[in-house]
Design brief:
256 residues, alpha+beta, YacF-like, 2 domains, four-stranded antiparallel β-sheet, three-stranded antiparallel β-sheet
Length: 256
């Protein structure tokens, strides 16, 4: 199955972007090739840009505290596994403390590094990080892999409270809904929401289904159009067309 997630507000959109970037960062830092470490640094700059929202830290702290209070109300409930509840509460407490301990502007340790900022500026230009543009960066890419890995980890670690805090919120969000099995006749699906609120939609399709969902939603109605896919999609004259068959899928409304 392939899962497609569709955020319904800007806050969840930001958290999903951070999750994707931190996962990409982890992947590239763990590798040893200089090209991988170049991508790890580019990804670090992207994390810096996405996390520069002034209210991100306070938003995360407020949501973690709200979820903590919600979960505390489940204590001594015989239908709830106490060990699981205690584990989640402990994760929330640790993430909140780490976020609270972050001093100053997010990513300030990176902005104060003139060498990194010079690379960030050049990488915004296509091909701008060539050796003749940034000889010191070219030298760094030829340093031992273990040395580069340690530096990348050190530059990224101060941002991990954002990763951990957003990860807990997204985990709770994903587990909040119940999947429904639905069908889109001739690739089209519409559902009146009737006041139903959600912060994210999760749509699951069989990985053999040759289509992808195009989702639009507001507080009144949800529309999903499944676009047929083929190997010809990459050709210059390929045009999007609606799947001309009934598409079965699973849909989950997620809400904190």
């Amino acid at each position: 199955m392939i899962t497609y997630e569709y955020p319904l507000n800007e806050r969840i959109r930001t958290l999903l972007r951070l999750e994707d970037l931190f996962e990409r960062s982890r992947h590239f830092i763990a590798r040893s090739d200089s090209h991988d470490h170049h991508m790890a640094l580019i990804t670090l700059f992207e994390i810096l840009e996405v996390s520069s929202r002034a209210d991100l830290k306070s938003d995360l702290l407020q949501e973690l505290e709200r979820q903590k209070q919600v979960l505390l109300a489940f204590r001594n409930n015989p239908a709830i596994a106490e060990d699981t509840l205690a584990h989640v509460l402990r994760d929330i407490e640790q993430a909140s403390q780490a976020l609270f301990s972050m001093q100053g502007k997010i990513g300030q340790h990176l902005r104060e590094n003139d060498w990194l900022m010079s690379i960030k500026q050049r990488t915004g230009i296509p091909g701008g990080a060539c050796e003749f543009d940034l000889p010191s960066y070219h030298y760094w890419l030829h340093r031992p892999s273990a040395e580069r890995t340690g530096q990348l980890a050190a530059w990224t670690a101060p941002l991990h409270p954002l990763r951990d805090g957003s990860g807990i919120i997204l985990r709770i969000l994903r587990e909040s809904g119940r999947a429904q099995k639905l069908s889109a006749p001739q690739g089209m699906f519409q559902q009146m929401l009737g006041g139903k609120t959600a912060q994210m939609l999760r749509l699951r399709l069989d990985d053999g289904a040759a289509c992808v969902p195009e989702i639009s939603a507001n507080k009144y109605v949800l529309n999903i159009r499944f676009l047929a896919q083929s190997s010809a999609q990459i050709s210059a004259d390929a045009r999007s067309r609606t799947a001309d068959w009934d598409v079965g899928f699973e849909l989950t409304f997620c809400n904190l």
